[in-house]
Design a protein that fits this description.
This protein is mainly alpha-helical. Helices cover about 40% and strands about 10% of the residues.
């Protein structure tokens, strides 16, 4: 009678050496590129690791801006492109108070309302009108709350927008 060979369990490795070597090579090449790129080139204030090289700019007409940069060391400017039916905008809106408190005086936020083609502009118009009346932040809070917490149609419904405006004290002048 022949003995049956028992199959030995295969050894499994979580990461193959080929992948480790490849990753190390890629990291090395990137490090060499970053640290050897023109030490005497002008510094790009937006990305100090990547210097500005005018010879490598795409062809085109460029205009030198007379307005100085608003960049200040230690300060951060955030441009928020917001829509009142965007869940990501709503999440950021809910988390901004903690961020502003943590970095008190070092963060400035600029809100830029946006609308995609073939979408209603009503909520954005309502926000802009309220902002011009001095109630922009209250309208922003109220629109997000109406959409995401109360399920109101703030994108299309004039009645919903008037209700939201009334909730923050805006009346006939707003309507």
């Amino acid at each position: 009678m022949a003995k049956k060979k028992q199959k030995q369990p295969e050894k499994k490795t979580s990461i193959k050496p080929v992948y480790i070597i490849s990753a190390l090579l890629i990291i090395s090449v990137l490090a060499i590129y970053v640290f050897s790129s023109g030490a005497n080139s002008p510094v790009n204030p937006v990305n100090p690791v990547n210097p500005v090289n005018p010879e490598k700019l795409p062809s085109g007409v460029y205009t030198k801006l007379n307005k100085p940069s608003s960049y200040e060391p230690g300060k951060v400017n955030i441009m928020e492109f917001m829509k009142f039916d965007c869940s990501h905008c709503y999440d950021l809106h809910n988390n901004l108070p903690q961020l502003l408190q943590k970095y008190e005086g070092k963060v400035q936020i600029i809100y830029i309302p946006i609308v995609f083609p073939k979408q209603s502009t009503k909520s954005i118009e309502a926000y802009i009108i309220a902002n011009n009346m001095g109630n922009g932040s209250q309208m922003q809070d109220a629109l997000f709350k109406a959409k995401f917490e109360n399920g109101m149609d703030v994108m299309e419904s004039t009645i919903a927008l008037e209700t939201v405006a009334a909730s923050i004290g805006l009346g006939a002048d707003f309507n």
